[in-house]
Design goal:
The chain is built from seven helices and nine strands, in the order βββαββαααβαβαββα. By secondary structure, it is α/β, with parallel strands linked by helices. The strands form two sheets. It has a six-stranded mixed beta sheet, sandwiched between helices. A three-stranded antiparallel beta sheet has the order 2-1-4, with helices on one face. The longest helix has 18 residues. It starts with a strand and ends with a helix.
Length: 254
């Protein structure tokens, strides 16, 4: 579903590339977490896939095409939820549908459906500043899901909420993913979050910390999870996964 080939990016004035020679193939319906130390290019990668920024070299394809449409084929959920404060919850969720000229009846049906799926039925008339942080993140997720994208991109969406809310949102996201089986690329700095959510964990290295002139590709490790779903954080297998990811992160410069 998602194919990344030879992706590279260097920001002007930077001493080293932030991304180098990224090759990644993600089958349809797979849940991928991108893990790595600060400065390794996690957010840059997901912003290139979302077409918010351009790579220096390389290609990104969705369903075999490099002319995929942001907001339709690919939707993104940001760390700060990115809701319009002057819009109600319902109008925030329907925003992408409205700019794509969906009929009013279809917009309402999808808004109602996703309000129910995220557990916020009855909150459609509220404004973002009337919601908790966790509720705002649910609305941001519903806005992306309402467009029914082929690929869902999430850039540390739960980083700003408390630990209990974060775990609840993780479970809600997994429930939505299991219902819709969209392809997911989820950026996180949390080893536990990556272990809990993903089918695979892509570990990126920080290129600026390498001492050699011959830069390695950005991907340090590609860890396939064999943990059954639903995940149980108390098992020995889960703890072993955390140890494996921690070792990969250390090799990556974390």
């Amino acid at each position: 579903m998602l194919a990344i080939d030879g992706l590279a990016k260097t920001y002007e004035g930077a001493p080293a590339p932030v991304l180098s020679d990224v090759d990644l193939s993600v089958p349809e319906g797979q849940f991928i977490c991108v893990l790595g130390p600060s400065g390794c290019g996690k957010t840059t990668l997901i912003r290139i896939v979302s077409q918010l920024i351009d790579p220096d070299t390389g290609t990104v394809q969705v369903a075999g095409s490099d002319t995929y449409r942001p907001g339709e084929d690919v939707c993104m959920v940001f760390q700060d939820h990115g809701l319009f404060p002057w819009y109600t919850v319902a109008k925030n969720i329907e925003y992408g549908l409205r700019i794509r000229h969906f009929p009013a009846q279809e917009r309402k049906a999808r808004v109602d459906r996703y309000l129910e799926l995220i557990g916020l039925t009855g909150f459609g008339g509220r404004y973002p500043d009337q919601l908790s942080g966790g509720m705002r993140q649910r609305v941001g997720l519903a806005r992306a899901l309402a467009c029914e994208p082929r690929v869902l991109l999430l850039d540390e969406p739960f980083a700003a909420v408390d630990a209990q809310t974060r775990e609840r949102l993780q479970d809600e996201l997994l429930g939505l993913w299991e219902q819709q089986k969209m392809t997911v690329l989820f950026v996180t700095h949390s080893i536990d979050e990556a272990a809990y959510l993903s089918d695979r964990v892509i570990v990126l290295r920080t290129l600026a910390r390498q001492e050699t002139d011959d830069l390695s590709p950005s991907i340090c490790d590609d860890v396939v999870s064999e943990l059954p779903r639903p995940r149980d954080r108390t098992t020995e297998a889960y703890r072993e996964m955390l140890v494996r990811l921690r070792a990969s992160l250390e090799r990556a410069g974390g």
